TrEMBL record:
The keyword Signal applies. The lineage of its organism: Bacteria, Pseudomonadati, Pseudomonadota, Alphaproteobacteria, Sphingomonadales. This is Lipoprotein. Residues 1-19 form the signal peptide. The keyword Signal applies. It comes from Sphingomonas bisphenolicum. Keywords: Signal.
Amino acid sequence: MNFRSFVTAALCLPLAACGGGVVPRTGYTPSPAGPPASAFMKQGPLMGSDARALTQMFGQPRLDIRETTVRKLQFANGRCILDAYLYAPARGKEPVVTHVDARSPAGTDVDPAACATALQAK
């Protein structure tokens, strides 16, 4: 064994001690899959609305962010900020609201329905 191989081996031995194997827990059974995500979708006046309907209700959005699978529209009027998340229910279908968040300008959560009413009142 030459000096270079010896040094390499000597440096690698302490690192080898760090790589322990994973020991599975005994008696572990993965939990069954829960209900589909759509089962948790909140009900509300904006759910199922498309971007056109939101724009008719609240005017032009302050933000319009488009990503591969989601579109986020944000509406605000100084009293509250409403974020609507739109997803396509199926390939080739128009994205619709599936989730809504609402908050005050200070960042505290507010009721989305109350915020929607405040946004319509302008």
